[in-house]
From TrEMBL:
Phylogenetic lineage: Eukaryota, Metazoa, Chordata, Craniata, Vertebrata
Recorded coiled-coil stretches: none
Ranges where the Pecanex C-terminal domain occurs: 957-1180
Transmembrane segments: 36-53, 59-77, 191-210, 216-235, 256-273, 293-320, 332-356, 439-464, 470-489, 628-649, 661-685
PANTHER family hit by this protein: PECANEX (PTHR12372), PECANEX-LIKE PROTEIN 2 (PTHR12372:SF5)
Cross-referenced Pfam families: Pecanex_C
Subcellular location: Membrane
Domain of life, per lineage: Eukaryota
UniProt name for this protein: Pecanex-like protein
Membrane-protein topology: Multi-pass membrane protein
Length: 1225
């Protein structure tokens, strides 16, 4: 424990303060000395120059030039040495004296023919070589202090080429060099590092020259500069910002990048504030340009110590995402490319809209008449807002669709390659079709919306609403619709409405079903919910925004350009956010009216700006409430779980620091940073800002199978035999099911209210997955699924029990049990539900999945008769696949095969291998002959051969002496001998028999010398014997339920035929298994070898596709973010790798273990982490049935044609019915 604390203080605290320098006892003296003097040089150079020279440009030039030259030399030498290790030639010498003599001899021979400049370069490199030698001798001296052995005589040197034909020997190695300096992979990284070093020195010394720092703060600022420079040369092993332990190249640039950003801001603001004509604007009485942005760089060491700054790429994503969401109404970003793409398209749309708005409001216009340009601006605003809300922030799907249309030949070649590998994924094509459907629909909808908006705003309909009563009627309509849609209906559908009622008021049809077998039935309240939602998104809020724009047009035309820009931004943001997710818009509207019309009417600017500002404030207030709820639930003394002794100490210690906790909560709410419990205790500390996606890296689970593993691992051991790897396919299929239906189910209200960043847990009998909603758009949802272990830890099981247990039977009230009212919860149950960070939203949520049934193979094969039955099915399956092979006629006529099978044509030929054939397991075994003969084989299997041959379209000779019987007999011997070889010739032992059968099941055949004739055509193994092994397992399993299949050949033949077409039987390491699951095959069967906790079992696993019932539990998203951030800090920064640490112990009020175990590895241990997956509303069949699907020209044409044909057929029918009867004449 003491060494761990010292290591944390040295590599965590001290290294964060110095930029990465610390004394590492694991390194030699040379490296530690170099690091120390390097850091002292970087610290004293700016300090001495600032104190010794006047603050002039000359001092700035000297410092910047010195740092630049210094970094160029170091980076050049480092890059050249690594290049030498990559491409250089190693030389073996006996000792240092030999090298010195050889070098001296070579120098004397070559110095006379070299010019003076080259001689000086050679002298310099010789000095470097001597330094390297001294370093090596120093390391040897260090090692000799604790050992009495002699120094090794043989040394390895590398040739460092100076000029063509001229080189010197360097005594060094790559690992020592990496310990001395970090490696930059290419020339670009070296140039970026040198440029960042120059920028740090330039901006830092500029601020020193301007006199921004006095007295001690000069030294402190020089220490910050030195830490930024040192981080560009050597970064400590791990930092708080790293998600994964080990070296992270981005950390090298993060500190310097932040320093440059803040120093540049300070310098620019200093220059601007010196101007007297600086335009200063104010909004709501707050000055936009503030004078208090200096001195933040003082806190650089502390901020990096406590981890308040993320990696620079994470900060970029976070900053662009927050700007896009709060100012432009955008959605969450999924990557750096996504963030840049989102902000660029928002800026392009804003520029276009601002041009129209500025042109319309450039001159005053009569409020009784709306200019056409302003109507065009309103129409364009609605169209762009709608279209942007329908697009994902990830441009990859759109780019792939464009690529398929522009370069179809390249796409077809890629598809052919996928077809060759037989693992084509249908998901990319499905996403492209959804994107194509959205684009075609937007063409029609946007055109119609533009025309309608232009016509309505050009009229006087919104001008007539200027009367306050009419405007408030529109607000009242929005509030009523929002209250019913987003509060009343979701509360009535919850499992415990208002946490008082014991069951949902609005129940689905599946609520009373034990195992639903059909898709969820569409209920009347779901139709009402969708109708109100569409009315609210596409009618109410566009009307409110357009009304505000039109009525404020006259006032805006007399204001500054800045107000025009703010109005454009506000309109774009409000419309996009209303189209994407209007769940909380009615509350924002209500607070806007109450605050600016009743509480502070003098602070109001205009309704549009008020609504815009309140949308940001209300969003932060919701985050604040969620944080406070998480804190109060987590530290409630009557339900806190003591995970360790530290928790017992931290609980009372945190009480007097409540004010600090409240201040942290406010700050973390403003900057959208997680508030993490320190070591899982009641003490909370702030983490660094993160985007909604949270994790920096796209960690996705990679399934291990035969397509991505070495052949030796497939032969010597089970490929990916652990349960987590094998069971991850079920979560992958669950992800595909959610991709198909999640967006539609959210729009139908089946998960309640939702927003970006929300976290849900789907819990069933064996599947427990955390679903993280990342991006919420108009008709699309991007999510990530994290599957937990099937057989989790004790703590996970306790939390799963807390989720699944019911509270309806609780009759307690305080200390007594008086019962409860009908259909109501007891007082204790209602109280306990309010002190949970999670809530059950639905109990019968249906998703397509696989039910798993497993049987112990040892139980089914314990008796010898059952093993004999399996071998019989094995041989019959070989005969079946042989007869049905399209190559049968070729094999029967092949001269090589006929020659190899001459011995099998003789009736007196006996197979006597006692390690393979046995009377206990072979039906055709002849006891008196101690083996198997052709006669005994025909006595048992000839009828089956003739029955199979009789089903062939082309007749095949199948009498006793036919080549078909000979080949069948030979393959039966081969199959049994392969089983005996795989069983290590111990087939009588159950364990060996199961091991051998499992080896054949996964396709590992060890062919004996007698059976090498099968290599004439490998299809005899791959298409006949291998599938026969798998089919025999299914037939043997059916023997216990359908005994008649073993008695009649016709029934057995039909069963094999049906299973061959409808059932997938293969090993789980076969890529065909994953393909079959993702292709939604109805039934699958496999044999799994399970090795866990000393158990060694073989399980026959059967999968049946059906509808699985899940509980949907919504977790406080701030609870999830805080627990994730706490785990990252504890494992990476504090290096607490204790598997029983207190922060992962069960805590049912916060589901702490389940949330922490869902972290990315190595922080958590999820069974499966899906890639970021986007679900579209157009793929949901029920939702398409309500709205008729997406609009397109083809759909409109088909609808018109159907109506026309119906009218054409209807008119003649009416004429016939009303035509008077004709006479017989």
């Amino acid at each position: 424990m003491g060494s761990q604390v010292v290591q944390t203080l040295r590599q965590g605290v001290w290294a964060s303060l110095t930029g990465g320098w610390y004394h590492d006892p694991d390194q030699n003296k040379f490296n530690n000395s170099c690091h120390l003097y390097l850091w002292i040089f970087l610290l004293m150079l700016p300090l001495s120059l600032h104190l010794a020279l006047p603050p002039t440009t000359m001092a700035l030039s000297i410092y910047c030039s010195s740092i630049t030259v210094f970094f160029v030399l170091i980076k050049l030498a480092n890059y050249r040495l690594h290049l030498m290790f990559d491409e250089g030639e190693a030389v073996v010498r006996s000792s240092l004296s030999d090298l010195s003599k050889a070098q001296e001899k070579k120098s004397n021979a070559s110095d006379s023919c070299l010019p003076p400049s080259i001689s000086r370069c050679k002298l310099l490199m010789s000095v470097c070589m001597c330094v390297c030698m001294c370093q090596e001798e120093d390391s040897l001296d260090d090692s000799s202090e604790t050992s009495t052995q002699e120094k090794p005589a043989r040394k390895i040197y590398y040739k460092l080429k100076l000029f063509p034909g001229k080189w010197i020997n360097i005594l060094y190695d790559r690992l020592t060099l990496l310990a001395l300096l970090d490696r930059n992979q290419d020339v670009l990284e070296n140039l970026v590092a040198v440029f960042m070093a120059f920028l740090v020195s330039f901006l830092g010394f500029v601020l020193l020259n301007h006199g921004c720092f006095k007295d001690f703060w000069i030294f402190q600022f020089c220490l910050v500069i030195a830490s930024c420079h040192y981080s560009l040369l050597k970064v400590k092993k791990s930092s708080v910002q790293d998600k994964d332990a080990g070296h992270n190249q981005l950390v090298a640039y993060s500190r310097a990048a932040y320093f440059c950003i803040f120093c540049a801001l300070i310098w620019v603001l200093e220059q601007l504030l010196r101007r007297k004509d600086l335009p200063v604007s104010s909004l709501y009485g707050v000055t936009i340009v503030c004078y208090d942005v200096l001195r933040f760089t003082y806190c650089f060491p502390i901020t990096f110590l406590v981890g308040l700054f993320p990696q620079i790429n994470t900060f970029t994503i976070y900053l662009l995402e927050q700007i896009d969401m709060h100012f432009f109404g955008g959605t969450a970003a999924t990557s750096l490319i996504s963030a840049v793409y989102s902000i660029l398209r928002s800026l392009v749309a804003l520029s276009l809209l601002y041009g129209f708005c500025f042109g319309a409001l450039k001159e005053p216009w009569d409020e009784q008449h709306t200019p056409a340009l302003f109507s065009g601006f309103c129409g364009l605003l609605v169209v762009l807002s709608y279209h942007l809300s329908r697009q994902s922030s990830d441009p990859s799907v759109l780019l792939s669709l464009i690529k398929s249309k522009i370069m179809p030949a390249l796409v077809e070649s890629d598809e052919e390659e996928e077809d060759d590998t037989n693992i084509k994924d249908p998901l990319p094509e499905k996403l492209q079709n959804s994107m194509k459907e959205i684009l075609l629909s937007d063409i029609i909808v946007c055109s119609v919306a533009y025309i309608l908006t232009f016509a309505i705003t050009a009229s006087t309909v919104f001008l007539s609403l200027k009367v306050a009563q009419l405007v408030f009627l529109l607000y009242a309509l929005a509030g009523t619709v929002g209250f019913v849609t987003h509060y009343l209906i979701p509360q009535l559908r919850k499992h415990h409405p208002w946490l008082w009622i014991s069951h949902p008021v609005l129940k689905t049809k599946e609520y009373y079903q034990f195992e639903p077998r059909e898709d969820a039935v569409l209920m009347w309240f779901e139709r009402l919910y969708v109708g109100l939602l569409c009315f609210e998104k596409y009618v109410v809020y566009p009307a409110i925004v357009l009304s505000a724009l039109t009525n404020d047009g006259f006032a805006l035309s007399h204001r500054k350009n800045c107000d025009v820009l703010l109005t454009t931004v506000a309109g774009l943001k409000l419309l996009r956010s209303s189209f994407c997710n209007p769940s909380f818009q009615f509350l924002t509207l209500l607070f806007t009216l109450i605050f600016f019309h009743f509480d502070c009417p003098r602070a109001s600017e205009s309704f549009l700006l008020d609504f815009f500002i309140m949308s940001i404030v209300f969003h932060k207030m919701r985050e604040l409430l969620l944080k406070l709820h998480f804190i109060l639930v987590y530290i409630a003394p009557w339900q806190i779980a003591w995970g360790s002794a530290f928790h017992a100490f931290a609980q009372p210690f945190a009480v007097p620091h409540s004010a600090m906790l409240l201040l942290q909560t406010l700050l973390t709410t403003v900057f959208y940073t997680p508030l993490a419990p320190f070591l899982g205790s009641a003490i909370f500390i702030s983490s660094y800002p993160r985007p909604i996606k949270f994790w920096e890296r796209n960690y996705n689970t990679k399934r291990i199978d035969n397509s991505n593993s070495r052949l030796v691992s497939q032969v010597d051991k089970e490929t990916g035999c652990d349960d987590n790897n094998l069971n991850s396919i079920f979560y992958e299929y669950l992800t595909r099911s959610l991709q198909h239906s999640l967006c539609g189910d959210l729009m139908l209200g089946r998960w309640g209210n939702y927003s970006a960043g929300d976290c849900f847990i789907l819990a069933s009998d064996y599947l427990n997955a955390l679903v993280h909603l990342i991006e919420i758009g108009n008709g699309l949802v991007t999510f990530q699924l994290r599957g937990l272990e099937f057989r989790g830890t004790y703590c996970q099981q306790r939390e799963v029990e807390a989720i699944t247990e019911g509270v309806e039977e609780d009759d307690a009230c305080c200390c007594c049990e008086p019962g409860h009212l009908p259909h109501m919860l007891s007082c204790n149950a209602a109280f306990n539900l309010r002190w949970l960070a999670w809530e059950v939203m639905a109990t019968k949520y249906l998703l397509e999945g696989y039910s798993i049934s497993e049987n112990n193979a040892a139980t089914m094969l314990q008796v010898y008769d059952l093993r004999k039955l399996l071998i019989t099915y094995y041989l019959k399956s070989i005969i079946y696949y042989l007869v049905h092979s399209p190559k049968l006629s070729t094999w029967l006529k092949d001269a090589t095969i006929q020659e190899a099978l001459q011995s099998y044509t003789k009736w007196h030929h006996i197979e006597r291998d006692p390690q393979v054939f046995s009377v206990k397991i072979d039906e055709d075994y002849v006891h008196c002959l101690q083996g198997v003969t052709r006669a005994s084989f025909c006595n048992v299997y000839l009828e089956w051969i003739q029955h199979c041959a009789g089903k062939m379209e082309t007749p095949v000779d199948s009498d006793e002496d036919s080549p078909l019987v000979t080949l069948s007999y030979a393959l039966s011997v081969l199959g049994r001998r392969s089983l005996g070889t795989a069983s290590h010739n111990m087939s009588n032992s159950l364990e060996s028999f199961l091991y051998g059968f499992n080896t054949l099941f996964k396709g590992d055949f060890r062919i004996a010398t007698k059976d090498e004739w099968v290599f004439t055509d490998l299809d005899l193994l791959q298409k006949v014997v291998a599938p026969a092994v798998r089919m025999s397992l299914k037939l043997h399993q059916d023997h216990f339920t359908c005994l008649e299949e073993t008695e009649e050949a016709s029934i057995l033949y039909e069963a094999i035929t049906n299973y061959r077409s409808n059932l997938v039987i293969c090993h789980e390491s076969d890529p065909a298994w994953r393909k079959a699951v993702l292709s939604s095959r109805d039934t699958l069967l496999t044999l799994r070898h399970m090795i866990d906790d000393g158990t060694d079992e073989y399980k026959i696993i059967m999968l049946y596709k059906r509808h699985l019932s899940f509980k949907v539990i919504k977790i406080n998203k701030e609870c999830v973010r805080g627990l994730w951030a706490g785990q990252q800090q504890e494992l990476i920064f504090l290096r607490n790798r204790n598997p029983e640490r207190g922060s992962i112990q069960n805590s049912k009020q916060a589901l702490r273990n389940m949330v922490n175990s869902s972290c990315d590895q190595p922080l958590g241990y999820p069974m499966y982490v899906s890639p970021l997956t986007t679900s579209y509303a157009g793929t949901h069949g029920t939702l398409r049935g309500i709205g008729g699907g997406a609009l397109s020209l083809d759909a409109i044409r088909s609808w018109l044609c159907s109506k026309w044909l119906r009218s054409v057929h209807f008119v003649p029918l009416n004429l016939v019915e009303h035509e008077p009867p004709r006479s017989l004449e």
